[in-house]
Write a structure and sequence with these properties.
This protein is α+β, with helices and mostly antiparallel strands and about 160 residues long. It has five helices and five strands.
Length: about 160
């Protein structure tokens, strides 16, 4: 899986500079059928992506890698997203905001692009770029964070 491979490369690059630290890296890709939609090069390409996604389901994949020394965990999370059937005028207005230009798939669900989304199946935070429930679960399972913290007086429970 492409997103997992990219997340692993990012994590290993960071770990090289910080070898005694836990490193979490992630990468997100948008896939329409078998085609990966990366960040558009320009507004024209962004418009083409938005038109292709219009009134269709696609998959947002986020790969993440948790790394420390010899420990490495890599995982992919998929979320299905259905775009609304929007008019060309709505898509042009969204393009005019500039938001699509630095987003995989040419939209950001956490911003104005959320208006283009009719339905999702799966993790909302995954579409934003980090599947929080899965990442926190892995941090807990790996002992990076503890499920029990100090109480209001600083005493561990």
């Amino acid at each position: 899986m492409f997103a997992v491979r990219l997340a692993g490369e990012k994590a290993r690059a960071a770990a090289h500079h910080h070898p005694d630290t836990w490193v979490l890296a992630a990468d997100t890709v948008v896939a329409l059928d078998e085609v990966i939609l990366g960040k558009p090069a320009d507004a024209e390409e962004a418009g083409q992506m938005l038109t292709a996604l219009n009134d269709r389901w696609h998959t947002v994949w986020t790969g993440f890698c948790l790394l420390n020394g010899t420990f490495e965990h890599r995982e992919a999370v998929a979320t299905e997203v259905l775009f609304a059937d929007s008019s060309p005028a709505v898509r042009r207005a969204y393009l005019a905001t500039g938001e699509p230009l630095d987003k995989a798939g040419a939209y950001g669900i956490q911003g104005m692009g959320g208006a283009l989304v009719r339905e999702i199946r799966g993790s909302h935070s995954n579409v934003i770029g980090l599947p929080l429930a899965e990442v926190v679960g892995r941090l807990l399972a790996s002992g990076v964070i503890s499920p029990v913290g100090p109480d209001s007086e600083g005493v561990e429970r």
